[in-house]
Predict the structure.
Amino acid sequence: MKSTHSIANASRWRYRIRVSFDLDDTLTSHCRKVPIETSLFPTFIHQWLGEPLRRGTKRLFRELRHRDCSVWIYTSSGRSSTYIQRWFLLHGIRIDGVVNGNRHHRALNRHYLQRLPSKFPPAFGIDLHVDDSEGVKMEGDELGFRVLVIHPHDEHWMEKVLDAVATLRHA
């Protein structure tokens, strides 16, 4: 017979889907036509930070957490993990992990791939990667990892991410 303690903690051990997001033109955009999140901070602070966050990101990340997903950032840029974590914290968002260009290259050198892809989510236990690049999608198709392409002007991008997560959960 199972103890009450183990039954109460059973949900803690269930499988969590790990979702990663690209930054440039996926979650950030310098195009004036892409709506951005409002902030509690004055405009000059965000101008100093230099990167607007795409509208809907906060709500989407809350919903992903509600669905017991782990939220990561996977960027090929040279931004430091610390910078990315702090930047999201300024928006009231906690990120579970960050893969930047340096971490990506270190990990892929251990996988001995003939050609280094621009992103390789399986090296970090990532189940779904969200990106604006069709090239990353082609690499995913070739190397066997899931990529959802979201364009900067897509008004239904959040629903597409949630649908992709629901599909993974039921697979």
DSSP finds seven helices and five strands in the chain. The helical segments are 4-8, 43-49, 57-66, 81-90, 101-111, 134-143, 157-169.
